[in-house]
Specification:
The protein is built from 10 helices and 10 strands. The chain has helices at residues 9-13, 19-35, 74-81, 102-116, 126-143, 155-165, 195-201, 209-218, 240-254, 269-272, and strands at 40-43, 55-58, 85-96, 119-121, 174-178, 184-192, 222-230, 258-261, 264-265, 281-292. The longest helix has 18 residues, at 126-143. It starts with 8 loop residues before the first helix and ends with a strand.
């Protein structure tokens, strides 16, 4: 238990850009870690790769995505002054829809589909998506298995995300690719941006907060890439072109002007190569920090 009862009300209510406050917090965490015979502390992290992680270090003037953390600029400054070092780093990109041209990806997607006997799947309802959800997460585990910090997603987590999120995602924003045996080999999940809507709702869905979310779902200039997975067997065969073709159709129909990626590990070159032809702008960075005990 971390006891902050001895801190004065003046400190707790005033501007906390005070490195002594940060130092006291780190010392208490270190004390707890040492008492449990731990070797180091690292954060901010969640309990799985699907949770929010990483302290914002660049892009403080940018609006966070729904799954992004925000913090004041002095946070990383304090940690670095107190001896913390970078453990992991994530990059986020913004893409203008006008830079995603189907002049190349339209014909390419058709060629890839014919060559490998693939077909795209789109959905009319959340219920129609459910039979593919387990396969999506299985594919996600395969896609990112070679990343050092990736921990495979377990079935109980899949069940949780299925129940909590799938019904929330509009089926227009999910695209899947299957082979000739109807086996899932690629998928992409995007969503309209709800960041502004959540700000207007002030953290509460009721009595009227949900109206802002409904409006954001129907009319929005921003979309966010949440997950994209491609079976390793197909990762160098241009299969992502089929996903981009379907997403391009949806974005154009809905008037999307900007697409944002969510945090991507800096070493995740496979994902970052997907955006290289779209003139991506790196507009946010975040890190986890480590301190040996």
């Amino acid at each position: 238990e971390i006891n902050i009862g001895d801190w004065s009300s003046d400190v707790c209510s005033s501007d906390l850009d005070d490195i002594e406050v940060t130092k006291a917090l780190l010392q208490k965490v270190a004390e707890i870690g040492t008492s449990h015979h731990l070797e180091y502390m690292e954060g901010p992290v969640g309990f799985s790769n699907m949770d929010k992680a990483g302290m914002l270090t660049d892009g403080f003037d940018q609006l966070a995505t729904m799954i992004g953390l925000y913090n004041h600029p002095y946070y990383p400054v304090h940690l670095e002054k107190l001896g913390c070092s970078k453990a992991s780093e994530w990059h986020e990109f913004k893409i203008e829809f006008k830079n995603i041209s189907m002049d190349k990806f339209g014909p390419l997607s058709e060629l890839i589909a014919r060559r490998y006997h693939l077909k795209s799947l789109t959905f009319k309802s959340s219920k129609a998506i459910l039979p593919y959800v387990d396969a999506m997460f299985g594919l996600l585990n395969k896609s990112y298995a070679d990343l050092e910090t990736f921990v495979p997603i377990q079935q109980f987590q899949i069940d949780h995300y299925k129940e909590k999120y799938i019904s929330f995602i509009h089926p227009d924003f999910i695209s899947c690719v299957v082979d000739k045996n109807d086996t899932l080999i690629a998928f992409g999940i995007t969503m309209p941006s709800f960041s502004r809507a959540f700000q207007k709702a002030n953290g509460s869905l009721f009595p009227f907060g949900f109206l802002h979310l409904l409006k954001a779902m129907k009319k929005n200039e921003y979309a966010e890439f949440y997950l994209i997975g491609v079976d390793p067997e197909y990762q160098n065969k241009g299969v992502a072109a089929l996903i981009f073709k379907e997403m391009h159709h949806v974005f154009k129909k809905r008037g999307i002007k900007f697409i944002e990626t969510n945090p991507e590990l800096e070493e995740n070159n496979k994902v970052q190569l997907l955006w290289k032809n779209f003139q991506p702008i790196m507009h946010k960075k975040r890190k986890t920090y480590r301190l040996d005990l």
